[in-house]
Amino acid sequence: MDKVSARASVPPGRQRSLPSLPYSPAAHKTGIAVAWTVIVTNSCALPIALFYGLWYGTSLSKRLVFAIVTATAGVASLVQACVRLWKLLREDGKYRPLGSRRGWLDFYQIQTIISIAVVAVSCSVFRDHSQITSQLMIFARQTLLSVSTVLTPPSITLLSIPLSTLVLLSSLQLILSHLSSRSPIRISSIAAGSPTRPGVYCIIEDVMAVNASGGVAYREALDERYRASPRFRRMLWRLNWWWGCGGTIVGAVLLGVIVGSEGEGDGTWRVGVGWGVPWGMAALGAWGTVRWVRRELLRERQEWESGMEERAEERTE
C-alpha cells in the first residue's frame, strides 16, 4: 500500500490534532511581497508604462513599439517557468507530484508553458501562415524577440487580449473541475481515475511545493489536510466557484469590450484595460479571499478541537 492509500485509510476521528501545513505566509511576508512585486511589475505596470511612454513620448515606429512591449511582457514568467522546470526534473524528486515518475511535470508547469505560448502567439501574428509551425517551435525566443512579426499596421486589439484570454481559459478550467466526479487524467498529485479535487487545490499544491520550495512534504501535508478536514474541503470547493465564475465573467467582459471596440478611435486605451484591469480585479478578489479564508480556517480549528473534546468525553463515559 502506498503512502497516499495509507493516509486515506486512517479515519479523521483518530487524528490527534488537525494536520498542519508546513508553511506560514505570515513568516514569509517579505519574500511573498518581493515575488509578487516583480510579477505584477513585469506583467502589468511595465508593459503599460512602456507602451504609452513609447507610443506618445517618442517618434519610434508603431512596429518597434510593439516589438519592445511584447519582448518585455512575460519575461518574469518565462524565467520562473525555467526555474520550475529545473526543480521538477531534479533527480531526487524533491518537488515532483506525489506518485509520479521522473520527468513528469505538475499541472501548473504545463499551464505555464501553454500560457507563454498563448501570449507569444497572441502578440505575434504572422503575415505568412506557412511560418506558424516553425515559429511555434521557438515560441520562447519569439516572446523575447518579437521583432517584425506584428501586422501592418500593428494590431492594438491583439496586444490587449493576452491576459484576458488567459484569465478566461484558466477560470473555465476551474469550473470544469466541478463537472466530473473522477479525474480523467493525472493532474499533479491526483492520479487518473481518482476523485476530482477543486482546481484551486492543484494551484495551491503546485505553487507552494515548487515556487515556495515546500517540496513533496507540502504536497503530502496538503493531501492529509484535505482528506482529514470536511470544512477544509468545502472551503476549497467554494473558492473554486468564486475564482472560476468571477474570472470567467471578468475575462469574457474584457474580451468583449476590447474586441468589440475595434475601429473606434486609436484604441490605445484598450492596452491599459487589457493589461491592468485583470490585475486590479485579481487584487480585489485576493483581498476578499484572504479575509474569508482566515475566518474559515479559524472555524475549522474550532470545529476540530470541539470534535476532539466530544470524542474524549465519549471515551471516558
Architecture overview:
Helix content is 68%, strand content 0%. It has 317 residues and is an all-alpha fold. Helix 12 runs antiparallel to helix 13 (269-316).
What share of residues are in beta strands? under 5%
Write down how many β-strands occur, each being a DSSP E stretch of 2 or more residues: 0
Low-confidence stretches: 1-14, 125-150, 312-316
Helix content bin: 55-70%
Provide a concise account of the structure shown.
By secondary structure, the protein is mainly α.
What are the key terms here?
single chain; 317 residues; mainly alpha; 13 helices; 68% helix; disordered N terminus; disordered C terminus
Blueprint of the fold:
Elements: H1 3-8, H2 29-57, H3 62-72, H4 75-88, H5 107-123, H6 132-136, H7 139-144, H8 156-160, H9 162-176, H10 199-211, H11 215-228, H12 230-260, H13 269-316
Helix pairs in contact: 2-3, 2-13, 4-5, 5-9, 9-12, 10-11, 12-13
